[in-house]
Amino acid sequence: MHERLAQTLTALERRGRRRTLAPIRGIDFSSNDYLGLASSPELRTAVEDALRRGLPVGAGASRLLRGNQEAHVRLEAAASAFFRAESALFFSSGFLANYAVFSTLPRRADLVVYDALIHASVHDGLRSSHAPSVEVPHNDATAFEDAISKWRAAGGRGVPWIAVETLYSMDGDCAPLAELTAVARRHDAMLVLDEAHATGLYGDGGRGLASDEGLNFEGLAGVISVHTCGKALGVMGGLVLGPRVVSDYLINRGRPFVYATAPSPLVSEAVCAALEIVKTQPERRARFHRHVAFAAEALRAHTDFEPSGSQILPIVLGADRRATSLAAALSRRGFDVRAIRPPTVPEGTARLRLSITLNVSEAEIDALMAALAAEYQVLT
């Protein structure tokens, strides 16, 4: 068995796709700590205060046994109020939250139509689901509608589900939410929105892109949103927001919830503090958007690459080794930039994923873009 594993690793090495864990070094252009909260004194103080009040470090059990701590209940109440949802359910990661939604909620008679670039957690959840699923081209609202219509014409009688990310983690572009909402309304579909990279940053008060003014969810069968807590909120975990019946059903049938030890109460306290920062410090979000706009202009000024319109700037290079070589060159210059290769992204689209956060200054952003231009010229 060991030899078989080693052979697979050797094959990955030959293709330039073997993953290894690298230490943190250099200026941060790779994390998802968009608002710079992960190391903030506010979150540190929230955890210290919780410890002084006697909160346990661990929950000690699943939520259905003795792990349902007051801190979890407080966070879910705060999250449902902040995101203006009927209920919230807290998971230990965004991955598990997505996995629970898609492995538990769609039924055998339903159809899940999902975007080609949706996160791996959704793919894994669907593999454990009894519901059939169909992949459609990225951001093609017409393809979603056609897939549902074809299924109905073939006798489909269940509930159609539409699954998208509101802001895509590797391309940095946004889903056509208005068009998808119209499709969902016409077909009485459930709409599941992964707001991972929009939470705390976009929409009304940082509530996500689905909260943008003018987006009307009336007349839909239902909307479920997943907000991760380990990106702009700076902590960890995932929140499923939606109708109360969804939370109750996941509590009863969602195996990733039922059989998992509950998240640390300290994490819940930190997420509560992060939501309060997003609510009461809009200037932090405004500074983030100024950074994103500055990075877009710097990218245009120094290179021929086009910005995505968000904090995620993909530098698509094609071949795996081109991406790893350029990332290594930038690392030698003191910038933490990571290469992203298949299967995380489609074949032939290996890239650098530049991530703009409040952990860097405008001068550092400009320096990165200048270094990128110089090293790209060497590469070509």
CATH superfamily of the largest domain: Type I PLP-dependent aspartate aminotransferase-like (Major domain)
Low-confidence stretches: none
Order of helices and strands: HEHHEHEHEHEHEEEHHHHEHEEEH
CATH class of the largest domain reads Alpha Beta
Shape: globular
Question: Mean pLDDT, rounded to whole units?
Answer: 96
Number of helices: 13
Number of strands: 12
Q: Output the structural class.
A: alpha/beta
CATH topology of the largest domain: Aspartate Aminotransferase, domain 2
Count of the separate structural domains? 2
Strand order of the largest sheet: 2-8-7-6-5-3-4
Largest beta-sheet characterization: 7 strands, mixed
- Gyration radius, in Å: 21 Å
Which CATH-level-2 architecture of the largest domain? Answer: 3-Layer(aba) Sandwich
Distance linking N and C termini? 42 Å
The percent range for strand residues is 15-25%
**Helix content bin:** 40-55%
